[in-house]
Every structure is written in structure tokens, then in C-alpha cells.
């Protein structure tokens, strides 16, 4: 979210344009990030105070009194904060920050133009921007301010879109992790008739039996089998809906001699599937 200037329109928000940079450049970039973090930690309160100033005279006084912190990091902070405000839809505050970011950018650019420390250009900038005869300079400043606002808004939109895509990817991964036999337990649960759905949510066997009994035979078997297939219900020997009554009694009381199948292997207990415990 840094800013650079190029030609007439000059101010642009940098994005990840250095992804193919050589290791030395990458190391330099990491150092710049660390310097920026330290700079913000030391001066954040002052930077936010600058961002909220409305009068040019107050901004001039602030920069003169705090000339030691006038550098590219100041500009970067203002741009980043402006984008944050745009994301939060605080437009009036974002426009105020964009104005101050443009002031700082013009001073920094003036320093580069005359090849001197930008701190020596504070007075020069304000003398020009406040001079009623400097129409071209004032117009250039206003055009840049509006362009700054537009870039902040565009970057905010891009950031929100990135967040939306990331959320969708995470949701897709979560859904994939709970799929069984091609079915999503939550989607299956939502497809149940209200009473059957509530029975699963409450793990209420009586309510489940009543819900199945009240449905047409075909519908009851359809919904019950989908519940079995996605793991909402763990069937016993009888995997049909008619086995719910027998299964549920086994699920409630499991004598020790019934825990073994005829072949000596442990029999899977019928009842609520493990997904019910996380609903």
C-alpha cells in the first residue's frame, strides 16, 4: 500500500509488483517492512493527529514541529490507514486522511525534484499551495487528492474481495471435511421436515419415531436413509427406518452380552451418529 509517483499523475498505490524480485531485493523489502513497523510503533499517535488536521495552517505547524518524522513511512502509514477506513466505510475520515497523504506526498516529491531533504521543502510547499496565484499547482494538488481517494477505495474493494474469496475457500474446505458418501450432514439436516430435524437436534428418539410415523412411507424412508448415509444416524442390523424402534432400544440399554455379534466381533451400537454431537 505504499505510494510512488510517475509522470503527471504520479501517485500510485504499489501492490505486489516485486514478486519476482531477486533475494537481495526481497531482503531489502523485509528490512523496509520492519523499519515501517518500528516507525509506526513509535509515532502512531502523532501520525493519527496529523491525519485528522483540517486546516493547512495547522498541518504546516505540525510538520514544522515534527519534521524529524517526515519521510516515506509517514506517507505509507497514511495510505494504509486510509484504505482501512475505506474498508470500514468511513468515507469522510478516509477523505481527510487522503488529503493529508497528498500533502505529505507533494512535499516528499518536491524534495526529490530539487534534490534536497524534504524537511527543507515544508515551507516551500505551503507557500505555493496557499498562494492564490498558483492555480496550476492547486489544481494539480486537487486532482491528486481525488486520485488518492479513488485508489484507496479501489484497494479497499480488492481487499474485501480477497477476504470474501478466502472465506469461501475456508467454508469449502470445512464442508469437504464433513462430507460422507457425498452428502453434507448439515445440508441433509436442513432438508428434513421440521419435526424430524428437531428430533435430531434434541437427540429425541420418541420425537424421531413420531416424525417418521407421520410421514408418507416413501418420504420417511428417503429422509431416514439420507440421515444414515451422511452419518446423522448410526444404524444397527436393520438399517431401514423400521429399525429405529429396535435400534433405539438397543442404543438406550446395551447389556454386556449383546455387545458381541455371533461371530465374536464387537457389534456397532445403533443410535445417533457422531455428527449429532457437533450440531
Features:
279 residues, mainly alpha, two-stranded antiparallel ribbon, two-stranded antiparallel sheet, 11 helices, rod-shaped
Structural features, described:
Helix content is 65%, strand content 3%. The chain contains eleven helices and four strands, in the order ββααααααααααβαβ. The chain has helices at residues 23-52, 56-65, 72-87, 91-113, 122-129, 135-178, 185-191, 194-202, 205-214, 217-230, 243-252; strands spanning 3-4, 12-13, 233-234, 271-272.
Shape: rod-shaped
State the helix count. Answer: 11
Radius of gyration: 33 Å
How many β-strand runs?
Answer: 4
Q: Would you identify the regions where 5 or more consecutive residues have pLDDT less than 50?
A: 1-22, 245-270
Tell me what portion of residues adopts beta-strand conformation. Answer: under 5%
* Largest sheet, spatial ordering of strands: 1-2
What structural class should be given to the helix and strand makeup?
mainly alpha
* SSE run: EEHHHHHHHHHHEHE
Summarize the amount of helix as a percent range: 55-70%
Rounded to the nearest angstrom, the distance between the terminal CA atoms is: 42 Å
In round numbers, the mean pLDDT is 80
Q: Characterize the main sheet.
A: 2 strands, antiparallel
Short recap of the structure:
The protein is an all-alpha fold. The protein is built from 11 helices and 4 strands.
Q: Which helices and strands appear, and what pairs or packs with what?
A:
Elements: E1 3-4, E2 12-13, H1 23-52, H2 56-65, H3 72-87, H4 91-113, H5 122-129, H6 135-178, H7 185-191, H8 194-202, H9 205-214, H10 217-230, E3 233-234, H11 243-252, E4 271-272
Antiparallel strand pairs: 1-2, 3-4
Helix pairs in contact: 1-3, 3-4, 3-6, 4-6, 7-10, 8-9, 9-10
